[in-house]
From TrEMBL:
Residues 218-329 form the DNA polymerase III delta subunit C-terminal domain. Keywords: DNA replication, DNA-directed DNA polymerase, Nucleotidyltransferase, Transferase. GO terms for cellular component: DNA polymerase III complex. This is DNA polymerase III subunit delta'. It comes from Nitrospira japonica. Its EC number is 2.7.7.7. InterPro entries: DNA_pol_HolB, DNA_pol_III_delta_C, DNA_Rep/Repair_Clamp_Loader, P-loop_NTPase. One of its GO terms (biological process) is DNA-templated DNA replication. It catalyses: DNA(n) + a 2'-deoxyribonucleoside 5'-triphosphate = DNA(n+1) + diphosphate.
Amino acid sequence: MPFDEVIGHEATIAALQTAASGGRLAHAYLFHGDVAIGKRLTASRFAQALNCERMETAKPPDACGLCRSCLQIEARTYPDFFVIEPDRELAVPQIKIEEIRNLEQQMVYRPLVGERKICLIDDADRMTIGASNALLKTLEEPPDHSLFLLVSSRPHALPATIRSRCQQLRFGVPSWTRVEAALIRDREKNPADARLLAVFSEGRIGQAFSADAGQLRTRQREILELVNQQTLQSSALLLTAAESLHKSERAQDTLTWLARWIRDVVFVRVGGDPDQLLFAEHIRALEACARQADTDSLLQLLQDIEQTEQQSGRHVNLQIALENILLRLRDAIFPQTPVPSS
């Protein structure tokens, strides 16, 4: 059953199934929530459930995943199913007005095979203003046979007029244990790799399935080398490392990893749940840093890294930002002992 492929979101799926079986489908839905947690997959499986040739009488509605309609929807070749998404090759991926106008021309006609025409708009918040206005006109007077499924991880970036014309369904992040179990069951990962991927992705199932555990461990070792006592206590080594990481275009990624490591140190410092640690396989190194670290300074560093990441698209000098974070991290992990006055 295709809905079984979705990890979590049972309540949301049940709501969709109930609406479908009761003939109370809205003309437009907005699936919103964190990135890579199954929103688009749910939308695709819902389209299959509404058009499956073998499960027409299934209660609640579901799909076989094997009939002609299900396979065509999966391949995006079903004549009554359309997918619009940003052009990923653009520096700033966008959905342009021409794509929405082409969609309008398709949606106005009666469906060729199924009972309705379904349009999935992925990353709908990437629509230009013109595209949003064009879609709004269709949502205000939608054809009776149309169903729009908008997917977004940034619903606040959509115009309020569009949000108000969609039934909104919020998707929560699946628990890490469920993601870990899915990795073991569906991807045949060993328990250690499954745990690492689940914690790294923080429950984002799409990210967990696409990440490589071996590469993550390599990155962990690089971060541990960067934050060891010998490196941190040498300003020259820190500045050289920051320059090298910036030149290799890894400064942004390094800041993200540093934030995860700092968070782990704070967790150990305050006696947090060890299952939440990304660097759990290096618990002794975490404990050694946590014993002498200044918690308030580490928390301030986390806030500053988050702010830097939010401003990364505004011509922030990431090398200088990384240098600043590393130097302050040294002071937070190895606070200077005041020299007593004579």
